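User: Predict SPW_0924 family protein's structure from this.
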Amino acid sequence: MVGSAAVRELLLVVAVAAVGLLLAMAAAFTPWPVTPGGSAPSSLVELHGPPAPAERSDSAVG
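Assistant:
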């Protein structure tokens, strides 16, 4: 039967895609160790604010 082979192949493709999605989510959301023996908090992006502006020295002669 041609129909059952096509359904079986489609189910295999969907199963492999689901396993790949689960692995990608596990890699994205599991905490990765920063130092040996310690773990970092789970996050995708580490956010940093802009650096503080440098103070100007007006005492320079120019």
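Residues 1-30 form one domain.
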